[in-house]
């Protein structure tokens, strides 16, 4: 699967403009300049991947400061819908990514209805766009996670070594989802599930292509960093009154750091859902000999003569260094 084939028209224009800027004058590749360039491109890609979530979070803050409490749920729901429509209309998101957002919305809303009923957190009462006491904008918060997951996959051209078998990931992710419901009635198994996730991804690494460099990173580190980032965003959202935990009802206080574990487990569910919708994501799983299948090979009509791929050399896995050099000259920024 090629990155360019998944990019929107807007992203293609941004890519061309950014490449002209980064490669202007063909300056010598000094180490400091290379590092700064890769760092800035990494930040820009992350910001672009977070576009939907960042706009939704900013909207929550603005609504908190400007809209009466009785109207906030409906205003946030309408704003979330408009943001989603705008992402599609203005070419900031593909239709395929919208499918991911929709799936996360449904899965998240189902959990929200149950968890609010059990008192895990509460929303401000009132509003027309509410299901079982849960405002519909809540599902878009899960959708923002799904949007980030699939966008970061193509923007960084992610590929994986020793990816776990899909059925094993599905079983663990299903157990995590059921535990979010079941721990209210039986013993909480989150730390047992956490140990299973650590075992499942212990040997999995991912290749992250930035601009000219391709880096390798343990998947568990990436999942932990995203969980911390979501926890930080959750603090902003609860301050804005989007929802409140029991400890925040009297006066707002930071969300307990233990929630990072819950978000880390949610990341496992997110990975399972995205790899279910995008089977190519897990195609880099190691075989029994420990080598990794080449997931860069494009499929379909584009498979022949892709100018981004080296046409010589033996088929099979390539190291991160070889992958970086193969994409050095013409790899899109995303």
Question: Overview of this structure, please?
Answer:
By secondary structure, this protein is mostly helical. The protein is built from twelve helices and five strands. It has a three-stranded antiparallel beta sheet. Strands 1-2 form a two-stranded antiparallel ribbon. Strand 1 and strand 2 form a beta hairpin. Helix 4 packs antiparallel against helix 5, helix 7 packs across helix 11 and helix 8 crosses helix 11. The radius of gyration is 21 Å and the shape is globular. The chain starts with a helix and ends in an 8-residue tail after the last helix. The N terminus and C terminus are likely disordered.
Q: State the shape.
A: globular
Main sheet record = 3 strands, antiparallel
Low-confidence stretches: 1-5, 284-334
Distance between the termini: 13 Å
Strand order of the largest sheet: 3-4-5
Radius of gyration from the CA trace?
21 Å
Question: What is the tally of beta strands?
Answer: 5
Count of DSSP helices?
12
Secondary-structure element series: HHHHHHEEHEHHEEHHH
SS strand fraction: 5-15%
What is the averaged pLDDT score?
A: 79
Helix content: 55-70%
Q: Helices and strands: which structural class?
A: mainly alpha
List the helices and strands and how they pair.
Layout: H1 3-6, H2 9-22, H3 31-49, H4 51-66, H5 72-89, H6 95-117, E1 130-131, E2 134-135, H7 137-155, E3 159-161, H8 166-182, H9 190-200, E4 205-209, E5 214-218, H10 219-239, H11 259-277, H12 320-326
Antiparallel strand pairs: 1-2, 3-4, 4-5
Helix pairs in contact: 3-7, 4-5, 4-7, 6-7, 7-11, 8-9, 8-11, 9-11, 10-11
């Amino acid at each position: 699967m090629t990155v360019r084939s998944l990019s929107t028209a807007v992203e293609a224009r941004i890519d061309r403009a950014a490449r002209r800027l980064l490669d202007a004058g063909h300056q010598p590749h000094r180490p400091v300049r290379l590092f700064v360039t890769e760092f800035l491109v990494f930040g820009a890609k992350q910001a672009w991947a977070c576009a939907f979530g960042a706009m939704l979070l900013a909207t929550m803050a603005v609504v908190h400061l400007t809209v009466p409490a009785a109207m906030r749920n409906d205003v946030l729901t309408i704003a979330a819908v408009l943001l989603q429509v705008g992402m599609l209309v203005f070419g900031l998101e593909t239709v395929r990514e919208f499918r991911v957002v929709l799936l996360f919305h449904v899965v998240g809303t189902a959990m929200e209805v149950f968890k609010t009923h059990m008192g895990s957190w509460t929303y401000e009462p009132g509003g027309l766009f509410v299901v079982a006491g849960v405002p519909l904008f809540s599902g878009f918060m899960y959708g923002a996670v799904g949007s980030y997951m699939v966008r970061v996959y193509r923007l960084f051209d992610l590929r994986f070594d020793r990816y776990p078998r899909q059925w094993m990931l599905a079983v663990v992710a299903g157990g995590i989802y059921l535990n979010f419901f079941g721990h209210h009635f039986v013993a909480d198994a989150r730390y047992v599930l956490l140990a299973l996730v650590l075992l499942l991804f212990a040997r999995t690494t991912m290749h992250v292509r930035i601009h000219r460099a391709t880096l390798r990173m343990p998947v568990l580190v990436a999942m932990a960093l995203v969980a911390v980032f979501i926890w930080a965003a959750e603090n902003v959202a609860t301050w804005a009154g989007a929802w409140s935990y029991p400890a925040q009802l009297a006066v707002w206080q930071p969300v307990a750091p233990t929630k990072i574990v819950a978000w880390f487990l949610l990341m496992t569910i997110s990975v399972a859902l995205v790899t279910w919708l995008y089977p190519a994501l897990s195609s880099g799983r190691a075989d029994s000999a420990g080598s990794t299948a080449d997931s860069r090979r494009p499929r379909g009509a584009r498979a022949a003569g892709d100018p981004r791929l080296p046409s010589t050399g033996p088929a099979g896995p390539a190291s991160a260094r070889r992958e970086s050099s193969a994409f050095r000259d013409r790899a899109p920024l995303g």
